[in-house]
Write a structure and sequence with these properties.
Elements: E1 3-13, E2 30-45, H1 50-53, E3 57-62, E4 68-76, E5 79-85, H2 93-98, H3 100-103, E6 109-124, E7 130-143, E8 150-160, H4 167-178, H5 189-197, H6 220-243, H7 249-266, H8 273-308, H9 319-328, H10 333-342, H11 344-358, H12 370-394, H13 399-426, H14 428-466, H15 472-502
Antiparallel strand pairs: 1-5, 1-8, 2-3, 2-6, 3-4, 4-5, 6-7, 7-8
Amino acid sequence: MAETRREIERKYASDDGGLPDLTGVAGVAAVLDRGIAELDAVYYDTADERLAAASVTLRRRTGGSDAGWHLKLPVAPGVRDEIRAPLSDTVPDLLAGLVRSRVRDAELVPVVRLRSARDVRELVDAEGRLLAEVSADAVRADRLTGAGGSARWSEIEVELADDGDPAFLDQVERTLRAAGVRPSRSASKLARALAETRPGKGEAASGAGSGPSAGGPVTAGDHVLAYLRAQRDALVELDPAVRRDLPDSVHRMRVATRRARSALRSHAKVLDRSVTGPVGEELKWLAGELGVDRDQEVLLERLTAAVDRLPAPSATGPVHARLRTWSRTRGGGSRRLTAVLDGGRYLALLAALDRLVDEPPLRPAAAGEPSKVIAGAVRKDFGQVAALVGEALGHPAGPERDLALHEARKKAKRTRYAAEAAVPALGEPAADLVRQMKSLQGLLGDHQDSVMTREALRDLAAEAHAAGEDAFAYGLLYGREERRAELAEAALPGAWAAIRGRTAVWEAPAGGLG
């Protein structure tokens, strides 16, 4: 069984002089000596150190009060989530899963052993509550791969107590700085150990900062690849959050998937569609898998809120119980999604995205000016949105209009993503188009939500009727959803006219943004 805790800490260089006097730190009533702990940790990574490159650490540690396996995932500078599992001889399956998006099929092997003599002090307030733990660590690092170098150093570590105020660390730092202690140049012990035990550590890295894009995107291809790379990185980084079922993680991962697919579709003049087409289909598959539970969750929330707003006499029958039963039969749960992320198809998609950004199938337009090539792609997408909205407005209310509005919504989303990718190259015109497409997407999304909710209500009413329950509430809710759709449709012509007024530059002849 694993446990998770948020770790907020700061590290400082030490000259072996031990800990300065911290009794004068504001809010500290006492400094308690907790003695010296002998810690022995073996850090695991791939042979090419993929976890270290992402500031992720995985270790097996003995000694101290928290012996076991520890996986640390970065959250922000100085902040990490530490997931712990009991001691075992091999990497626990749970922790291995949380790093799979980075490790893929590579083997996790011991790379560094760190042995530390930790002199621990606890800073407590007047009521004896722990404020922070401060330690002076004498560290020996031994590389377990390659030439097997070693290093020794001392450092001071200050870790905030659980639920503590991060501002307290500023108070401690002021006292440490006054005593001549300075922040460490290494983000972690592992980072320092890898740097100081690396064979040929004194040699400068060859080729660093070289290449045509070292100073930032220049060509149209550079901009498109930068956007795709950001989405690939988002998928990899969000994978462990999805596995941990963190709030909004599935939605964010799905958005990254859709953004990547939209970029491939919008920029067919930059990237060869014969290569990107199959990748786009796999991104569509992943977005669908991520959406199974997310869409059901959103729909359940909408229906529950609607039932809660019904006057008491109208909510006849076991409506809430029926909603829960209906939802359970349609969701797959976190286990299903974890199985998807553990599957070979998903890992193959990540590998394909790696190849796409590292060895891109560039077409001649990739070398062109972003103000022309990227603007042309965005203009084309916007033109398709305009055509679809016009088609939808030409239909009378009913299924054909519903379908046309749904297609317009999907195209508005794709245009929004294309405009997002264009912002670094095109600036404010693209940023304003993002805002306008987001507004249109919201209006059309409300309409589509109503369509989907009415479909669900028909199913619920049928199930309730078959079970001998009163279905009146579902009919009442259906009528309210019809009214919401009518209001959205009535608002669309005026909203679309206002949007076209703001986005006229995207309907101008090609070159209007150049």
